[in-house]
Amino acid sequence: MAQKMTDEEWRAFVSEGTRTGKLSTVRADGSPHVAPVWFLLDGDEVVFQTGRDTVKGRNLARDGRIALCVDDDRPPFHFVTLNGRARLSEDPAELRRWAAKVAARYMGEDRAEEFGARNGVPGELLVRVTVDHAVAVRDLAA
């Protein structure tokens, strides 16, 4: 039977391995836009980067509301959906530092600096989202 995850459980779940998040932003016409992102949790915040001129970047600059879904699509199935409002930064040092930290999760420590240098450049945005609301359910098919 499906059960709610505790705060500790959902944080561990979204941080496990290389699960990507499915980020939903709001287009100018009010319709949703969904795209995968690499991310980290930093305390009560989700941190990721995106290009300033991407659909995500333009949407976030105009309307910072987001929803992020992280799931396990294998039985018994689990998911977490996080909602919040994005804050954007183009600070070069912070962008490079966080790009490397995120890359370490997804590409491994041995390639973190390489991807940090590639992704922590002008034209990229550092996005920080304080989690305002979380829905976290495990064992949907148990």
From TrEMBL:
SUPFAM superfamilies on file: FMN-binding split barrel
A GO CC term attached to the entry: cytosol
Pfam family, one: PNPOx_N
Keyword match Oxidoreductase: yes
Endpoints of the signal sequence: none
Membrane spanning stretches: none
Domain Pyridoxamine 5'-phosphate oxidase N-terminal: 7-133
InterPro entries per UniProt: F420-binding_dom_put, F420H2_bilvrd_red/Heme_oxyg, Pyridox_Oxase_N, Split_barrel_FMN-bd
Keyword match Oxidoreductase: yes
Record's keyword terms, sorted: Oxidoreductase
A GO MF label: oxidoreductase activity, acting on the CH-CH group of donors
Xref: PANTHER family: F420H(2)-DEPENDENT BILIVERDIN REDUCTASE (PTHR35176:SF1), HEME OXYGENASE HI_0854-RELATED (PTHR35176)
Protein's UniProt name: PPOX class F420-dependent oxidoreductase
